Amino acid sequence: MQAQSTSQTDSQTEPRTVFESRYASSPNEVKGMDTAQLRQNFLIDTLFVANQFRWTLSFFDRYLTGGIMPVDGPLTLDTPDQLKANYFLERRELGIINVGGAGRVVADGAPYDLNYKEALYIGQGTQDIQFISYDADAPAKFYLNSTPAHRNYPTRKIARADADVVELGSMETANHRVINKLLVNSVLPTCQLQMGMTELKAGSVWNTMPAHTHDRRMEVYFYFEVPEGQSVCHFMGQPQETRHIFMQNEQAVISPNWSIHAGAGTSNYTFIWGMAGENLDYSDMDFCAITALK
């Protein structure tokens, strides 16, 4: 069920690129998966390797999830053969959130400095993209999401102060959290990509409860700021046929449009959500009562 992974070594000015494809899976297939099969199909376990672009393509909405940690100098975004494009963003848009040390992204010659938890949207048609860390001992970790795009929107940096911020939940229900909408249509225009970051308060562990699905969009969750020795249990599957995957720090998980996407940690944590599909309506959610989950 998992598509073949490939790797390539490019010219001396570009790093090795690892590219993996994941086939779409139906609810009926997922019902029969064991733990290893669930992890093989939905978990992205390694995103940051020094000087190496790592990409996972999901056939759900052709969503690309990636990471790059530049250490030995500037790294130029190459174009994997699987995209069949003249350049990476010929028919795509790109969202970036820095989850490491200070860094810089240069898009067609324009520099954008990104500190921890700052975001950058790069529009379709941008041809030359470079990633730079300012300190090799504390390198930037650029978390990347990319979706197909039909037109160009302007490249724009989104600092923490630019986010559309919503505070939800409570300590009593262990889900007191702050949602930072970063690359969403209430902040800037995009074709279909949306990204944001949810930070759980100390003492809270649950995210995305009550759980929901949305047939119009798929998602990818990236968990980070998970303390050493702690873990997050990510819940997926149809509301009445749920499954779970235990995840560690700086791992991501693919969520099909028919699946819930929720989690509970052994500590508080932060996660980045990315979405793609046929609308940009953040409130498009088909909720399931907590007591109806099975």
From TrEMBL:
Keyword annotations from UniProtKB, A to Z: Isomerase, Metal-binding, Zinc
Molecular-function annotations in GO: 4-deoxy-L-threo-5-hexosulose-uronate ketol-isomerase activity; zinc ion binding
Cofactor list: Zn(2+)
Cofactor note: Binds 1 zinc ion per subunit.
Record pathway: Glycan metabolism; pectin degradation; 2-dehydro-3-deoxy-D-gluconate from pectin: step 4/5
Bias (Low complexity): 1-12
Superkingdom: Bacteria
Reaction equation(s) it catalyzes: 5-dehydro-4-deoxy-D-glucuronate = 3-deoxy-D-glycero-2,5-hexodiulosonate
Region feature (Disordered): 1-20
EC nos: 5.3.1.17
Known function: Catalyzes the isomerization of 5-dehydro-4-deoxy-D-glucuronate to 3-deoxy-D-glycero-2,5-hexodiulosonate.
Family that this chain belongs to: Belongs to the KduI family.
Name of the protein: 4-deoxy-L-threo-5-hexosulose-uronate ketol-isomerase
